[in-house]
Amino acid sequence: MRIGTPKEIFEGETRVAMTPASALELQKLGYECLIEKGAGAAARFSDEDYKDAGVTVVPTAAALFKQADIVAKVRPPEETEIKRLRKGQTFISFFYPAQNEELMNAANKKGAHVIAMDMVPRISRAQKMDALSSMANIAGYRAVMEAGNNFGRFFTGQVTAAGKVPPAKVLVVGAGVAGLAAIGAATSLGAMVYAFDVRPEVAEQIESMGAEFVFLDFDEEQTDGAETGGYAAPSSPEFREKQLEKFRELAPEMDIVITTALIPGRDAPKLWLEDMVALQKPGSVVVDLAAERGGNCDLTVADEKIVSKNGVTIIGYTDLPSRMAAQSSTLYSTNIRHMMTDLTPEKDGQINHNMEDDVIRGATATFEGDITFPPPPPKVA
Ligand code: NAD
User: Fold this and answer.
1) Catalytic residue at 130?
2) What does this protein do (predicted)?
């Protein structure tokens, strides 16, 4: 069978779902690989690189969709792409079926089998396909780079002949995948890092990365982690007040604040309020990774960088993985390749879409003319 990757058409998207390296691995599974001309250019993979890796470069997206049995992409399909799908074709990308019901119905009408990379169950066996984590890891790292680029001082403390420089203080709010990556990047640059999360079980992870867990003296009744799949549940109003009080206390001291707090299926909780920004020193930076879901900071404008009245820069970019296209394409294409490995147990270049397999079943949104989203919960952890 043939697997092909078209050029992303969403404006500003620079990632690509197949790299020359992932194509070599896909060929080992028995697949023939196709790429649309120029599809890797924005991530710095040239058509020549693909040709050298044995990939056939196809001149147009239309030709690619026609020739490929499996289409692998980063972004959900746009209307033109849906029109090109056909019966029995497998389509793999981030799809967000809960938010894209119409798209899912349209792809199903075409008879395509949709695998949503965002629906891969977060169980140990599927970590190699966990594209959400791959992208969150990059976003967390890049948030620190963006902060550094907009902060006029060193992260690390120094004693030089020209004077003593204190280390920057960084607060990370939300220590999931992105938050932990931000902690790792900021500590490695020498900053003093503080981190807070509503899930107390992450305190150990925060401390093991050299940051200080911001402790709240408040006894919140804990939700069983198993009920929420390891994710956070909304906090009580009392807990939230205590949390905001703590942030107000920290605000004048923190040079950089990176917010990543999310609760599945809800708008981002507002945690860094306007009055906290007003308490920050001029030159401080807030990077809000929750911008796409409304932002954790009151003042965040999605996709923009703004400066508050008191000189605090607030960054709401929603394309952080795309700003590191080579790295994110490498990780994402590896996640896709692992998905293809599980879909090709015989390594014979033929898809075995095994709906008995928890991971494949979990990620499949449409199959053989049926909507298969939402999936049943996975049987194993
Ligand atoms: P996420 O992006 O949904 O949320 C980011 C973080 O925000 C979470 O740590 C959450 O606790 C935190 N948060 C929510 N409300 C908050 C508030 N009011 N104040 C402060 N923090 C708040 O989460 P994620 O990064 O996708 O993952 C969260 C967890 O999921 C992981 O830490 C892990 O336990 C689990 N996970 C498991 C796997 C796996 O394969 N086993 C993979 C990825 C994630």
Assistant:
1) yes
2) The transhydrogenation between NADH and NADP is coupled to respiration and ATP hydrolysis and functions as a proton pump across the membrane.
